[in-house]
Write a structure and sequence with these properties.
Elements lengths: L4 H37 L7 H32 L6 H6 L2
Helix pairs in contact: 1-2
């Protein structure tokens, strides 16, 4: 089977976009967890609810970007003889 290089480019770019978005999602949620753990240990420090909400909204935005990129990569995969990808599969590779 001959390689469709246009599809391969779409696949590769979309896969990288998904990996980036999932990495950013992981960092956002990890940092939020660290922040919450620190606040739990400091009862005199007020909880910054708007910052927590903003972090969760950004993590959700990254999820949506990753999902769209994964869908584009998987649509191109059969045309360039590459395997389908998933969010969990991409995160295991990190």
């Amino acid at each position: 089977m001959e390689t469709n290089y246009t599809a391969l480019g779409e696949y590769t770019a979309s896969k990288r976009e998904a990996e980036d978005a999932l990495g950013r999602r992981f960092a956002i949620l990890n940092n939020l967890g660290v922040t919450l753990a620190r606040q739990a240990e400091r009862p005199e420090q007020p909880v910054d609810a708007p910052a927590g909400h903003a972090a969760l909204e950004e993590a959700a935005r990254m999820e949506a970007i990753a999902a769209q990129a994964i869908a584009r990569a998987n649509a191109a995969a059969p045309r360039c003889n590459e395997p389908a990808i998933s969010a969990s599969g991409l995160m295991r590779r990190k």
